[in-house]
Amino acid sequence: MLSTYFAEHKERFLNELFELLRIPSVSADSKFKPDMRRAAEFVRDKLTAAGLDNAALHETPGHPVVYAEKLIDDALPTVLVYGHYDVQPADPYELWNTPPFEPTIRNERIYARGSCDDKGQFYMHVKALEAMLATDGLPCNVKVMIEGEEEIGSDHLGNFVAANRDKLKCDVILISDTSIIANDVPSIEAGLRGLSYVEVEVVGPNRDLHSGVYGGAVHNPLNVLCQMIASLHDEKGRITIPGFYDKVDELTPEERAALAEAPFDEEEYKRDLNLKAVFGEEGYSSPERASIRPTLDVNGIWGGYIGEGAKTVLPGKAQAKISMRLVPRQDPDEITELFTKHFISIAPPTVTVTVTPHHGGQPYVTPTDSVEFEAARRAFREAWGKEAIPTRGGGSIPIVALFEQELGVKSILMGFGLDIDALHSPNESYGLFNFYKGIETIPYFYKHYAELKKTGVEA
Amino acid sequence: MLSTYFAEHKERFLNELFELLRIPSVSADSKFKPDMRRAAEFVRDKLTAAGLDNAALHETPGHPVVYAEKLIDDALPTVLVYGHYDVQPADPYELWNTPPFEPTIRNERIYARGSCDDKGQFYMHVKALEAMLATDGLPCNVKVMIEGEEEIGSDHLGNFVAANRDKLKCDVILISDTSIIANDVPSIEAGLRGLSYVEVEVVGPNRDLHSGVYGGAVHNPLNVLCQMIASLHDEKGRITIPGFYDKVDELTPEERAALAEAPFDEEEYKRDLNLKAVFGEEGYSSPERASIRPTLDVNGIWGGYIGEGAKTVLPGKAQAKISMRLVPRQDPDEITELFTKHFISIAPPTVTVTVTPHHGGQPYVTPTDSVEFEAARRAFREAWGKEAIPTRGGGSIPIVALFEQELGVKSILMGFGLDIDALHSPNESYGLFNFYKGIETIPYFYKHYAELKKTGVEA
After folding, report:
1. Which of A289, A386, B114, B172 could, after both became Cys, cross-link B119 (CB 3.0–4.6 A)?
2. Close Cβ partners of A417 (under 8 Å, ≥ 6 residues apart)
3. Once rounded to an integer, what is the mean pLDDT over residues A232-247?
4. Of B338, B357, B376, which residue sits at a domain end?
5. What is the pLDDT of residues B175-220, one digit of tens each?
6. Contact residues, A window 368-397, toward B, CB-based 8 Å cutoff
7. Which positions in chain B touch A299 (Cβ < 8 Å)?
8. Among the partner residues B226, B273, B295, nearest to A229 by beta-carbon distance
9. Sign of CA dihedral B240, B241, B245, B246
10. Domain assignment of residue A28, yes or no
């Protein structure tokens, strides 16, 4: 029985995850390249051990994709599990209470880079499949694809998918890389924002100058960059880039009312983040601002003297990383172009501005009345004894839109994280409860999905 | 004869300066503390070797002051030479074409941190005094005070001067720590701007957040900081801090006309800095903006992810270093207070703002019709065969106002640098011509000063 298997192998599941978390598989930094391969090989070996077939590394011009499958019956539907074994950089290291690549349990949580995003989450699938294969067997065919470039834009996965359409043919894609509302309020993400990410550089004089000798007569690139960035929002918190909102659909009052049913406690939100006040686009609630509305955030800024003490320099250039979260119908390439055109147009004649795009991602919406979504809903109902609320997430998984385009199937975002997991931040963590509860929930998805596909019962 | 002595010892003068430049006497960084002492001892020993008496290190709670003197006759006037043996940090090292503490000559210029500011300049005095003592003797009493904390605000020199008023008693202070207009257009600085320097911190959420999950609903401290900084100037390039201009005196048309006589070629200025256009407060010329008008410059800004690639972080805080150059009657402490009050008042309710003052400095003006100024003018006339133009400098030497207050005497700013020397920047340099011409000019100051004091002839 599954529950017995889980109980007997619980500790090993965690030890294996710890082994994986100890590998610093940071895709963004080439010095971790050997670790990336080690992580991929680890995943391959565990898929084989779980009982899947043909587990192998597939080379790309970047980091390898790990693929495995268990095809049991042509007549049964096929689920493709997607995840990523790469993690965000762990900088700044000094802000971690324990080393990012030495997983540690405190307060029933696993602290480590990637503990939730996405090692802890995709590894639940590996263990759920192992348990199913070792006990009652699989009710569907299964394909597993774990990539190594999600945190750097999945640059080579598009080609891999396009070149392997037959191999990856499936009826639904199952992904655990998102969050639920709370451990007593399960939810399923029915939408994701897209992403446009740019790096900007403002160059003034050809060298750093003495601010006493030149200050006042030479336009300071740091002041200029601040002015340019400040002008990207108006006083109502709206983005001022011409055309930016052209393809943003307003939700109907009914749709907004449905979303508003998800519990949200603003006081608790403020307390958790130690915020004095929330802020965002006028006319929208905090959950709306973070999900159904597009945004523009400075992710990093630097220039001039940033060491200790005072240095009276008028720097030659200023730089920033700026990203925009996009909602359905906003195209990342189009938005990047609008941004670039606008940003260059608002530059004063004293400076030279360069905009360099990083990877982007398409926004995504899943219909909540599909067989797939209903299967996920029933899985939560059975495993958690509660109804899962459909939500619209603020983050971006760029590859989801690509899957739909290349493979013609929808993705189910059945993630088990929490807002407090601190993804991409120091002290990322993942609840032990979430790890084990996820492993327990996944087999129910297969069961209900197979049943619903057979009986054709719609939600 | 002086000229013969100079010719015979030219190479040694330069070799000694190189020795001094090789000592990385960065006062701002405690890891260079042993080098600070080495530099002070080097200066002490060279003052002794030059023939001065009582050369010694005087301890302070920070870096030591080097003092020496040659008192020849109570009836003669006394000149106090001031300079500093500390230098600015050399960061960023990678932008130096040759190592900052390995002086190198290229195109008749000495490249090294401190080559001009101020080792190259104060060392001219040490060598000029050596030459005078070795040949015709001194026409005045001389006191030499070389400090080690100019680049960090001369924090302990004030106490040292106050505690040694008798020892430092003098008729004029002679300082070479400023620039001339060009090698064929000598000039003397008749005024300096003051300085208020602050560090600001804008804190939002208690940790770095995922910009997808929180973006739009949590006010981003980087965006906030940019908006706050942007609002510090209006569209006419004026500073918006209430009360900032209250004590700024407008120069009379005659005074402005006199300053405008100093040659200034805007096209050459732009070419030198590779500027597309100049910019500054409406209604003022570039030289005026950089001298008789106060300014506000961001000297450094940082926050969020500043490494390679893209990281979708909504950072918990943003920081900047901001300095204001002040003109006569603007008090640094008062301006720092106005800034702090204003900056905190414009912070949105979503963030917590902290303003930390660094050292400041009083603005300063020297009358151009004094015996001292006339002595400097005559020294240039005799050594350069040209009239020196009185200018108003943009930089700040905070200690000059303190000297006037504590010792009751004016300072003559007889510097020999050039705008192209790149003070405080990578690849700081000092012209060989300027080094040698400075050594040659200094004895003429003593000669004319002694004569003018004796005869009482005014300019």
Report:
1. B114
2. A116, A117, A121, A178, A179, A180, A423, A430, A434
3. 97
4. B357
5. 999 999 889 889 999 888 889 999 999 999 999 888 888 999 999 9
6. 393-396
7. 211, 222, 304-305, 310-315
8. B226
9. positive
10. yes
> Within this chain, do residues B228 and B349 fall inside the same structural domain, yes or no?
yes
- How does pLDDT run across A426-436, given as a tens digit for each residue? 999 999 999 99
CB B65 within 8 A of CB B47: no
**For B37-60, what is each residue's pLDDT tens digit?**
999 999 999 999 999 999 999 999
User: Could you tell me if B377 and B447 lie in one domain?
Assistant: yes
Please give the Cα distance from B204 to B206 (Å, whole number).
Answer: 7
In this complex, is the C-beta atom of A429 within 8 Å of any C-beta atom belonging to chain B?
Answer: no
Pairing of strands A104-106, A141-147: unpaired
Specify if A277 maps to a domain: no
Token pair, residue B245, equals 């201009």
- Inspect the interface and report whether the beta carbons of B311 and A318 lie closer than 8 Å: no
Query: Which residues of chain A from 332 to 351 reach within 8 Å of chain B, CB to CB?
Result: 348-351
Any CB–CB contact under 8 A between A51 and chain B?
Answer: no
User: What percent of chain A clears pLDDT 70, i.e. is strictly above it?
Assistant: 98
CB pairs under 8 A between A and B: 354
Residues A131, A134, A136, A137, CA torsion sign: positive
pLDDT digits (tens, 9 = 90+) for A137-194: 999 999 999 999 999 989 899 999 999 999 999 999 999 999 998 898 899 998 888 8
Is A12 an interface residue toward B (CB < 8 Å)? no
Measuring CA to CA, how many Å separate B365 from each of A356, A394, B327, B413?
Answer: 47, 58, 9, 10
Cβ(B69)–Cβ(B142) below 8 Å: yes
**Interface membership of B220 toward A (CB under 8 Å):** yes
* H or E element at residue B5: helix B2-21
Subunit contact B223:A298, Cβ cutoff 8 A: yes
Strands in B109-111's sheet, in edge-to-edge order, are: B104-106, B109-111, B429-431
Structural domain of A313 = 194-248+294-357
So what's the pLDDT on residue B347? 98
**Mean residue pLDDT across chain B:** 94
Final residue in a domain of this structure, among B357, B392, B409: B357
φ, ψ (nearest 5 deg) of residue A103 = -55, 140
- A206, A150: one domain: no
The answer to whether the CB of B102 falls within 8 A of the CB of B22 is yes
Domain-embedded: residue A289: no
> Predicted confidence band at A459 (pLDDT cuts at 50, 70, 90)?
very low
ipTM of the complex: 0.74
Most confident of A71-85, A177-191, A350-364, A380-394: A71-85
Q: Which of A313, A336, A358 to substitute to test the interface with B, most B CBs within 10 Å?
A: A313
Contact check, Cβ <8 Å, A310/B299: yes
Between residues B194 and A303, which one has the greater pLDDT?
Answer: A303
Mean local confidence (pLDDT), A403-418: 94
Residues of chain B short of pLDDT 70, as ranges, are: 394-396, 456-459
- Residues of B with Cβ-Cβ distance to A424 under 8 angstroms: 208, 210, 311-313
Interface test with B, best of A178, A278, A279 (most B CBs within 10 A): A279
pLDDT at A458 over 70: no
Number of domains in chain B: 2
- Rounded to the nearest integer, the mean pLDDT of chain A is 94
The number of beta carbons lying within 10 Å of the beta carbon of residue B155 is 14
Q: Are residues B302 and B341 in the same domain?
A: yes
Domain at B398, CATH number: 3.40.630.10
Statement to judge: residues A227 and A337 lie in one domain: yes
Strand A411-413 with A172-175, pairing: parallel
Selected residues 235-274 of chain B with any CB under 8 Å from a CB in chain A: 273-274
Question: Which of B208, B301, B352 is the mutation pick for testing A, counting most A CBs within 10 A?
Answer: B301
| CATH code of the domain containing A331 | 3.30.70.360
